[in-house]
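Chapter summary example.
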Amino acid sequence: MNARVDTPVLSQLSNRHLDALEEETIFILREVAAAFERPALLFSGGKDSLVMLRCAEKAFGTGRIPYPLLMIDTGHNFPEVTDFRDLRAKELGAELIVRSVEDSMARGTVRLAHPEEPRNAHQSVTLLEAIEEFRFDALIGGARRDEEKARAKERIFSHRDSFGQWQPKAQRPELWTLFNTRIAPGEHFRVFPISNWTELDVWQYIEREQIALPSLYYSHPRHIVERKGLLVPVTELTPPKEGEQVVVRNVRFRTLGDITCTCPVESTAATAAEIVIETLAAEVSERGATRMDDKTSEASMEKRKKDGYF
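The structure predicted for these 310 residues follows.
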């Protein structure tokens, strides 16, 4: 982790509200452990899941997290992130379960329309297969309501039917932090302990707690092309198209997912403190600024969530 950077703006920015957010997250993590028989924590190695892990450490103690970590791997993840995921799980002494979209493809449950089709949306199939394999009754995820409008509809304890589907009109009320965790056989919950956090809260917490992250979150030079208003990284999976000019820019990733649909933003921020300052000035949500798969239609995320997506 980079050293702290003290700036006049950062010194004037209060982070006292982080204690209340942390307390709420710890309460929810403990509630899941108490209410469900076979929960799991979705862990990608990204910043939101790393924040949840820090809260889980505080809730239960290092080496005592009472549920396994589950990763659904598209096979197109950044190696820096998967390497960091493995390292962090080992440091925590946590059980890490990885299930791959490529295994679903081998079974024939996932069929791509063409070899270059993005696999991100197909994670839903692999996730539902993992739920059936391990009989999970609750999955803890790092989604936040400020990310995207479909996520803003989500309850903290979000019910899924026996098909793994989300019905936004059938959400259960959550008055006075009272959660209805009753489920019928075959059903499960998705639980989002950091629902009430914002991107700024996450980065303030990372800065306060000095949480280590994959290096891609910080400014680094990278070959990119400009495409449809996004900076697309040049990789074997995302080569430049005819007529596109490859340039080198200093960029960082606000969110990290499948290489084929995740884009960086131009940035010189090399520390969490500097990213806090940048985030204060951001006018577009992290998914809106960086995710190609959310731009296919206005209802892209909601449709995928109804099909079982995170």
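To summarize the output: Residues 1-6 have pLDDT under 50 and may be disordered.
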